[in-house]
Design goal:
34 strands, 10-stranded antiparallel beta sheet, 7-stranded antiparallel beta sheet, about 525 residues, globular, alpha+beta, about 15% helix
Length: about 525
């Protein structure tokens, strides 16, 4: 132990000197306002002696010289695909490519490319210990437009993971196995999480099944308390090491691991023989903090580790599919990165300028609104309720006070995701629009996680170019749609009659207007 600590100290000292010089160089070069072409996260890791062996991002390049594709989208209208690359080497994603390709239809993210050159790309996760909801037991793919943000003022999109969505690679190259050292970081939306198992990014089993304690090493983000927890009520950054979410050396609660919910969150897990750590911080400002740094968990099967080297995103190692979250970028390294190297990476992340400024196209939280159809047939019809039944009704200035009130809602921060919205009835306070079996109802909030998810909708620019469209938080390929005067969440083509592709873009686009009452 003493010899390992001596070597670790020497390594940290050297890396600290490197990182200090690097950060000073970044600041001198003006990286606070633009990304330096040779100093992105994977360049920093390589200079620290722990190179990236997987690098995933839908928002920007993670190497200063990278100009290849970041991700691929597939549109519903004709099932064709298109790669989205940076606008130039080492730069932010060219979101205009996606916007043009996906105009007047819906798109899903089919591939998240690996920028490391090792082809550790992420694709639709196959069935494992749990089956996904898509055909053949595969997991769902993420809605490509559900997580808009900006990087240094330029539009980009994250990966919005609702329960049932997942990506995986079970045949990787260079990812740590057994007790080999590794590091990983990810940028998440700290306001989008749940208590399900498990929203993970990192190292997992290669057969999509639970192969026992220590066969995983992945970042977990959420508020699941079944296996472990930190201070407060969560969410927490923890390590999914299989059959346990660990926040420190001991199973169960470790008060030194804080609840953390920055809008853009840097989350780090790293491990080496009988040693691992959790770190985290605000991806928009400031430094990283260390929440745990010490021996492997005090439980059988985790020392030595038995990592298998698959990569997962949004799911557990056995394809458990109850987690929720949003991913923007992340890497995995060969070797155990020093704190100093990670501190330099954090400085680059902050300099990247993650923000939501200019991306909100939806109604203002707290405003009173009505939702008017934009389809040519129905521009006098509004989303309305009569008791629990939700439909579209014609409302005009001469309508009764009751009819006007039934078509009026207060916009609330999303019950399941504060980046989205929920609609509370103006004349039935405490009751919200929610979907059940794909149809919309007005129900009283029962406080459950299921209700919160069913009553949360993520606004986007209207799919027909008018107003807004509202994607379901837990079925993000489905949007609020009127069909034969009833209201559903509907996909663009599908097995249900209300999924008809005819007039879909018009039917899912709503004019947000001042409330009738």
């Amino acid at each position: 132990m003493a010899l390992r600590e001596h070597r670790s100290l020497r390594r940290v000292t050297l890396a600290a000197a490197f990182a200090g010089a690097l950060v000073a160089g970044l600041l001198a070069a003006g990286v606070g306002t633009s990304q330096a072409a040779t100093s992105l996260p994977c360049d920093i890791y390589a200079s620290g002696g722990t190179p990236c062996v997987a690098a995933h991002s839908t928002t920007r390049a993670l190497y200063g010289t990278y100009s290849g594709p970041l991700y691929q989208v597939r549109r519903a209208s004709d099932n064709t695909t298109r790669d989205v690359a940076p606008v130039s080497a080492g730069s932010y994603a060219n979101a205009a490519t996606q916007d043009t390709f996906c105009a007047n239809t819906s798109c899903v993210i089919t591939i998240i490319y690996d920028q490391s050159g090792r082809n550790n790309r992420l694709t639709q996760a196959p069935p494992g210990g749990f089956r996904g909801p898509a055909a053949g037991g595969y997991d769902n793919l993420a809605n490509a437009t559900a997580a808009p943000i900006t990087v240094n003022g330029h539009k980009a999109y994250g990966v919005f993971v609702s329960p049932g969505t997942g990506y995986r690679n079970n045949a990787t190259n260079g990812i740590a196995r057994g007790d080999q050292p590794e590091g990983m970081y990810a940028i998440f939306d700290g306001t989008h999480s749940n208590g399900g198992c498990c929203f993970d990014y990192g190292n997992a089993e290669t057969n999509s099944r639970d192969n026992g304690n220590g066969t995983m090493e992945a970042i977990y983000f959420g508020s699941n308390k079944i296996w472990g927890s930190g201070a407060g009520n969560g969410p927490w950054i923890m390590a999914d090491l299989e059959n346990g979410l660990f926040s420190g050396a001991n199973p169960r609660n470790n008060a030194a691991d804080p609840s953390i919910s920055h809008r853009f969150l840097t989350a780090i897990v790293k491990g080496e023989p009988n040693h691992w750590a959790i770190r985290g911080g605000n991806a928009q400002t400031g430094n990283l903090a260390t929440f745990y740094n010490g021996a492997r968990p005090n439980a059988a099967g985790y020392n030595p580790m038995k990592k298998e080297g698959a990569i997962i995103l949004g799911i557990g190692g056995d394809n458990s599919i109850s987690g929720a979250g949003t991913f923007y970028e992340g890497v995995m390294t060969s070797g155990y990165p020093s704190d100093a190297t990670e501190n330099a990476v954090q400085a680059n992340i902050v300099a990247a300028g993650y923000s939501t400024a200019g991306t909100s196209s939806g109604p203002t939280v707290g405003s009173n609104i009505s939702l008017r159809a934009t389809t040519v047939c129905c521009t006098t019809r509004y989303v309305s309720h009569a008791g629990a039944t939700v439909s579209t009704q014609v409302v005009t200035a001469s309508s009764s006070a009751t009819d006007k009130a039934n078509a009026s809602f207060t916009v609330r921060a999303g019950l399941a995701n504060a980046s989205c919205v929920s609609f509370e009835s103006r004349n039935t306070p405490g009751s919200y629009l929610r979907h059940q079996n794909y149809q919309l109802y007005l129900h009283a909030n029962d406080g459950t996680a299921l209700f919160a998810a069913d009553a949360t909708f993520c606004p986007q620019t209207g799919r027909n170019g008018q107003g807004n469209s509202f994607a379901s938080s837990n079925f993000p390929d489905r949007y609020i749609r009127h069909y034969n005067n009833s209201v559903y969440i509907a996909s663009n083509g599908g097995t249900n009659t209300w999924d008809s592709a005819t007039a879909w873009t018009d039917d899912v686009s709503w004019a947000v207007v001042p409330a009738w009452a």
